[in-house]
Amino acid sequence: MSRSSLLLLLSPLLLSCCVAAQQNSSSAPVVPPATTTTTTTTTTLASFPALSTLKPDELTGPAAQPSPVTTAAAAADGSCSADAQCVARRGQLSSCVDAVCVCGPRAYEKSGECLPSKDLNEPCESSEECQNTKHAVCTSSVCSCDVGYTNENNVCTLVIPPPMPAIVPMNRDVSGITIKPNFEPDGAYKVLKLKSEELVLECTVTGASVNYTVAWLKNKTAIPDNERFKTVQPNKLVIKKPEENDADTYTCVFSFSNNATASRQEDIPVMVPVYVRLPASTSAVEGEKLQMKCTVFGRPIPTVEWLFGNNSIKEEKGRYQLLEYENVPNAMLQIDDTKMEDRGEYTCIVRNMYSNETSATTMVRVKDKLAALWPFLGICAEVFVLCAIILIYEKKRNKTELEESDTDQSPEQKNTPDHGKDSVRQRK
Which of 107, 128, 265, 290 has a CB 3.0–4.6 Å from the CB of 114, allowing a cystine? Predict the structure, then answer.
């Protein structure tokens, strides 16, 4: 047995003996237990040089070493006591903050590892890689500013539209000035023709000669100049290769130099003519569900009405249901439990708020439930008739062959031996 192990076994006995000796030799009042224990322990260790020479780990024993389970748990939940632990776990960009491993300001965490973040215009795979710049996202595999922000010196800055002049309600003709938009001849709107090269919106000013500035709005939002939207002259807005989504309400806002607080505006509604498409004929089976889909184009979204003959169809009428189709309300007519009386012409009428109207008609044919069986029965009847004809023909042909066979055998029978004998007998 080693010396240190022997001393550890004898130390409790030596300590208890020392305490008992001091209590018997001293007549002073007893001090509180905590103080007595501390003082006694110090005196005892000083009294035994063998114990005082022991190292701290020999006194505490193996119980003072950290548990491997505790260390693994600390690594799992991200707790730490030094930066080195975090670097070993999550990489060089990790540090220990408030006893927890965190990624640095220019890094992001992915799969438990701290990776460097990207700056604007650098390649990326996800938006979390672009955290170096506020309001940056990963677009087309490149870190760029989010919608509504612009890149200014590698900083995403909020795009603030230019302030619009105060709109003061006025009459159409103020101080001899008249503003006239280039509406269509038949109404106060402008028609957008799809697949055309451009759409021109213009507000003409007539009257007193004054200086003015013009701002264009789309649905009450300022329109910035770009490749498709160009402002010229300056009261003319040109839209290159217009699309269906360009149909909206545009506004030209005029500010006059003779009155800094006065401005005028005129709205120009832009619409796409309505168009409707419906099959020329539709087939249905009695007792089944029938759906007629009316394909509708146009902006703003038009309204749809259905007619059966000359009667308007309402959704609350029993078996009829008007449903939404391709984001157009009532564009699909559904008939539950189709009946024979549902046969006839159905018309889909489409119109918009500018009195632009068109329609399409389909002819509905309702078949009997057993309609699919009749062709099969017809085929069976044809096969039966054909078989009967073949049988009759074969019987007639066999009969004819037998008759011809009998006719061919008569001369031969005359030359038989029996016939000769009959002749000889007759001579006798």
Answer: 107
